[in-house]
Design goal:
With 99 residues, the chain is mainly α. Helices cover 79% and strands 0% of the residues.
């Protein structure tokens, strides 16, 4: 996980994300990481628009938070509606059996 943070830090500071720069940051904080993992990270990020990826991640992460703010009463109503839908679907399926 710290390699992701290093990549974001390098990106934010306008530095190139390459093996040498990642190693420098990891050495500066006193962390040892396998060089193959560093190379894999650099290869995985090659050609990736990090700013766009961050925007998409924020958008996806924001959607579930909105439903968590629902009041308990709204949650109960939603649950009841889902149960009714499930019952209706089950009944429709049984009707098809007796055709």
């Amino acid at each position: 996980m710290e390699l992701i943070y290093v990549a974001l830090l390098l990106h934010k500071s306008g530095k190139e994300i390459n093996v040498e720069n990642v190693k420098k940051v990891m050495d500066a904080v006193g962390s040892q990481v396998d060089e193959s993992k560093i190379k894999a990270l650099v290869a995985a990020l090659d050609g990736v628009d990090i700013d766009q990826a961050i925007k998409e991640a924020v958008t996806v992460g924001a959607a579930p938070a909105a439903s968590a703010d629902a009041s308990p009463e709204e949650k109960k109503e939603d649950k009841k509606e889902e149960e009714k839908k499930d019952e209706a679907e089950s009944a429709a399926g049984l009707g098809a059996l007796f055709g």
